[in-house]
Give the backbone structure.
Amino acid sequence: MNDVPIKDKALQNGDKIQVGDILFTLMLDSDVPGCSSSPVSLDDNRLVTLNFVRLSPEESLFLRGDRAPQTASAASARVAHDLNALLKISTNITSAQTVDNLQDQLLDSVLDVVPAEQASILLVGADEEWFDSSVGRDRRAPGKLVQPSRTIVHKVLRDGTAMLSRNILAEGSLSVSDSLVQTQTRSVICAPLQALGRKMGVLYLATGNPDSDFDEGHLQWVTAVCSIAAVGLQNCRQLEFLRSENQRLQEEVNLNHNMVGESPAMRHVYQLIGKVAPVDSTVLITGESGTGKELVARAIHQNSPRRANPLVAINCAAIPEALLESELFGCEKGAYTGAQQRRGKLEAAAGGTVFLDEIGDLPLPLQAKFLRVLQERQFERLGGHRTIPANVRWIAATNRDLKQAVQGGTFREDLYFRLQVIAIRMPPLRERSEDISLLANYFVAKYSKACGRAVKGISLEARAQLVHYEWPGNVRELENAIERAIVLGSTELLLWEDLNKEVLERGGSPGVVSPKYHEAVRQAKRKIVHEALDRVSGNMSEAARHLGIHPNNLHRLIRNLGLRSTGQSTDDRPA
């Protein structure tokens, strides 16, 4: 041991043990106290030097199995220390869960091996051109500003090759920056962080100690460390992305709402609701009548911090203009003939949410007062002088084009911009036809239970009519059509003849002939009903009994098929 034959001796850190041709070095693992982070700012002054040593990752001895380091016995301790540190860094990197944690471990490990006084990691963004994050260490003065040379950093990032610069201050042909002179920087190592052909940043090391200049061994080791760390960095970034994506999907799944739909348009609406619900920003919901704007407002309130307080809905189009102001703001006794003191909707919604439906129909005089409430967050009762705070969240909805209303002078432009902090557009049903079947199934289950009927589903013919109809009244019209079909139907399936006349006449793709299958079914039904009526001389009750259906269903079937009770087609009626 230590070139001296021994029989029994306690081992100490750094002892060299030779067994035959094999030399072992004992390296006791020791924790290096972490340093506090230092701010990083790139030095923009130009730095020119001829004393550069460059090294690509492919040339690093630590990364090439065919060129393992061959060193003399005198240097074996350093090699063993470096290899042990490299193994330790590899282990730590595989356990890092975040980018910040990986950077801290990397800087601490590098400063344990390389005699650098300053160390920093600069990471680039998606464009691989500009640095969007940095972390630094100053061994001498924790928390002190670290200023890497912008010239060296960008050159290493651009070329993808590690660089060693020694004797910076002593080089006669150098033009160094003021910051390097002030910090007495003598040696710099800068190595790229890159994996899978993608540039992620650089590791920058600097020292001004003349007794511990960097050498090519340090360059070799730092290059190897950066190659290993880059893979870990890529994994941490991917893990953080997956965490954020998982959180987003969980929030979307856990979003409390009563809306039905899985189309891309509705998923976009759900995402917007999830983002705006936690904050108090004003929301303007636009969309055609019947698209479910109030459901969006309720979903925002139910998923907001104000959900324990009331949601007060005010239909600006349903309340007469003369009463709207007192409904909103309340009134004091004697404000008008017979007036008693009464709280308005805004006071009733204290701590909660006010939903102003059909805001486009708000009269112009009230628009000015409402704008003041939005701006100042306070109001006065009608006929009163006491200022009352408006601790509410504002959500407005309209089926009108407010931009056009502004141009027409029927809506205030300043109020429009005050309302449209966040805009959510509810798509019409024709733009999300893939949701029609889901909505139809939901309404069938809802109204079959409400009506006490055991309706198991929708026939193929009826579903085809529903999907191909454009639904100008949107979800509200679809709901009414399903409810009507459930009430008037008599079978365990919702049939196409149970649908109302508008759906049957305008169903199907525009300009496309009805499918042969559906037309054949229609003609077969016409023939069966025609024959049944002829057999009983047009007696509706007898024909219904022979067909096994209720007379009311037969009347509706005759009407939908375009037949007369005598079996004659409506097309054959005399003019």
